[in-house]
Amino acid sequence: MNNKLFITGGMGMVGREITSLLMQKTDADIYLLIHDQGLSADKETILAVLSLPNKKEFRERLKLVKGDVTKPKLGMEKSDYRDLTDNVTHIIHAAASTRFDLPIEEARKINVTGTKNVALLAKDCGHILQFGFLSTAYISGKRTGVIKEKELEHTAGFVNTYEQSKYEAEILLKDFSNNFPTSIYRLSTVFGDSKTGKVSHFIAPHQAVRMMYLGLASMLPGTPDYSIDLISSDYTASTVVDLYWKKFKPNQTFHITHGNQSFTLKEIIDESYKQLAVADPEWSLRNYPKPAIVPGDVFDLFMNSATAANNPILQKTLNALNHFAHQLLYPKKFDRKNLLTVLPDYEKGLPPIQEYYGKVIQYCIKTKWGKIK
Amino acid sequence: MSDFGFKNCYIQEKIAKSTDLLLESAKEVVSEIDRNNVSRIFLYSGINSYLEKDNKENALELFQYPVAELRHTLELPKANSLAISQQGCSGLLSAIDIAYHLLESSDVENESMVCATVDVLPAGTKREIMYNVMSDAAASVLITKNSEKNRIVHFHQQILPYYWDTPLHENELLASYFPMAQRAIESALSGAGLKISDIKWVVPHNVSLRSWEILAKLVHIPMEKIWTNNIARIGHTVSSDHIINLVDMEKEGALKKGDYLLLFTFGFGASWSCLILQH
């Protein structure tokens, strides 16, 4: 019997690249959860989004299942749910909301309840062999210093509801540790494709660059030498596939991060301005000043002033920065002992952010941050 | 506006006449000097007043110059008078810088120049402009060679010409205010060969207390060194703030000989200006 892999979030930022790689590199049947409010469940469309050819083998191996992780039994038709529990051997749960500004209850509904529902499905699966969960390195929240992969629980607090809800999802998965073997992949901030610069989901760092492009980035909290850990979507996906498919280690957690060679906050501001000028020479004539790097209390004072002044545009801009920018006040280094033990050549293959940062900026400008397809 | 340091706002029903305000301040600066030594008068106004005049009937009224009236009233027989404008709140500091450089390059002994500024908002104008409360005011200074008081140490101005269209770029201006202010102050200090800790007093614009609370942290100067007494009392006056504040600081006994003073302001157009004086 072929392996049968169920993927949630398979059309997401990293999920779609993972799905695409698994379609290409394995012979597993892939059950792809399609949100019942999302894309039309049409294999041709899905293969195109996955950048895969519309060939017979792929069409046969790809099974589309409509559902919603936030609903009990994933809101599926009973027959679909039974089909999964009868056949699925592998699960990758990548579905999540990566928004930083959701109210905590909404974030929990997707990221915690969603994880619970997928875990319950896994528990119901008679032949389950592996469960992979995509998490974030920032479940460490406001902790500082070296963060080890084996560490989870802490009381430092969180900068945003995304961090908090993913943390709670990891805690929840501990309750299922006796039911199926689980591996957790804590990703750093995924910035774009290292070869093409393509971005499928524009998140906080892209929005920060957009603020700089619009001349609205006044200040960022933090210190100039704070390390900004960004990773490419393609290398992240291939690392997850290697860890999950080729070298699965039950009950282990892995930090998939950029590490020592990351840009510092000052460097990333400088590089952003340099690359924006290259991508749009007319923009550089405006001579927008680079944002000041300030302590957290100064940033908060400025935020409060914008709120008191009732300036909607500045307030919106600052709110967009606010939900992630405070992370810059909590310097940390992600230890990768588990990762390097399993994949000793990880660092050799890691595309340096310095080499593709400009490509991502160009993609952002070309697509107007995703408004032009 | 209380979040920005303005507790009260009083509006007089009768708007002051700009020439009255101007003459009152200018007479004082020339009261004890030889008026023959005044070689130039620079009169600065930040408001585009010429646009508001409706002189279709008598075109000659367009040539009725306040700066010429000022020269006449002050009885300055040799002063070349010139009005300048359109640099927002930076205008007077720029005029001082121009006068300073002209005096530096002149061989004439005891030469001096008057820099004056006046701005009166037209009746009915909204007095709350971009988070500050505006007052009408005039101020004048006498610039002399080898002055024993308020020696000009260094002037630095950062400009961003792209922001000339203030209504169009209001949000970009607000966003750039603090990083540009930080840059202007740090560049001025560097040009003067001073550290921020050398500064005894920051003589502020009176735009808002909150803006100074933020800027103080950015440039690492304690709020106690920023003379903010006039922000709530007088408000912002386009280009007269620093001179009014300096006069009041002196009256209060806050200034001592040798103190380094840092005057900073922002002007629409857009410019960030910083003048360092030694009292």
Global structural class of chain A: alpha/beta
- The end-to-end distance of chain B, rounded to whole angstroms, is 33 Å
**CATH C-level name of the largest domain in chain B:** Alpha Beta
Mean pLDDT of chain B: 91
What is the chain-wise order of helices and strands of chain B? HEHEHEEEHEHHHEE
Q: If classified by CATH, what would the architecture of the largest domain in chain B be?
A: 3-Layer(aba) Sandwich
Beta percentage of chain A is: 15-25%
CATH-defined superfamily of the domain at 4-193 and 229-257 and 332-351 in chain A: NAD(P)-binding Rossmann-like Domain
Q: CATH top level of the domain at 4-193 and 229-257 and 332-351 in chain A? A: Alpha Beta
- Overall mean pLDDT of chain A stands at 93
Oligomer: heterodimer
Note the topology.
The complex is a heterodimer of chains A (373) and B (279).
Chain A: E1 4-8, H1 15-25, E2 29-35, H2 43-49, H3 56-61, E3 62-67, H4 78-87, E4 90-93, H5 104-124, E5 130-136, E6 145-147, H6 161-174, E7 182-187, E8 189-192, H7 204-213, E9 219-221, E10 227-228, E11 230-232, H8 233-246, E12 252-256, E13 263-264, H9 265-279, H10 281-284, E14 292-294, H11 296-309, H12 312-325, E15 332-334, H13 337-342, H14 346-349, H15 353-366
Parallel strand pairs in A: 1-2, 1-4, 2-3, 4-5, 5-7, 6-15, 7-12, 8-11, 9-14
Antiparallel strand pairs in A: 10-13
Helix pairs in contact in A: 1-8, 5-6, 7-12, 9-15
Chain B: H1 18-30, E1 38-45, H2 66-74, E2 80-85, H3 91-104, E3 112-119, E4 137-144, E5 151-159, H4 170-192, E6 199-203, H5 209-219, H6 229-233, H7 241-252, E7 260-267, E8 271-278
Parallel strand pairs in B: 1-2, 1-3, 6-7
Antiparallel strand pairs in B: 3-4, 5-8, 7-8
